[in-house]
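Morning. Coffee machine broken again, so started the prediction first thing and wrote up yesterday's gels while waiting. Chain of 176 residues, entered below exactly as on the submission form.
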Amino acid sequence: MKYTLKTLSILLGYPQDEFRKLVENPEDVYELLSLEDEEIARLIYNFLKGIDPEKADEIYVSIFELPAKCPLYAHYYIVKDKEGELGRFLLEIKGQFKMHGYDIPAGKEIPDYLPAMLEFLSLIVERDKRSAAKFAKRYIKTWTKKFKACVERNNRVYLPVAEALDRVMDKLLESS
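Came back before lunch.
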């Protein structure tokens, strides 16, 4: 799960060098990820083969950025209508990060940014599967189906990634 989580973190982040390396080497990515889960590896492979690297930035911005059709922030799905809850929610996530020795570099993103949470999980999943599953259940799994439905409605290019995310969360919770 470690490599799958890290790969999803890269794919759901803004398309930069790491993203482009994955797109250039889909067979290598599939080979590595299939050691963790072949079905999820196939979804990611299909995305990598189907995305046009020249249009990746444009596609990403059209779905995940201003105005975001499918936000990559957990608070949008979990505390959206709960006034006054956002600060506590973000501090809770940041506390989980710090407890495991992980911190988002200052000025980079807020803690509930999905790629940051997936990167965090990739770092702790092998050494503390129970904590990883607990984190995934509390902060990610509760909204992956909504996210997947949003992606399906707005830009099917990212649908294999959204499906892979949902399946990874299921698998992580099963294995704890």
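The domain at 2-174 is CATH 1.10.3480.10 (TorD-like). Going to sketch it on the whiteboard this afternoon.
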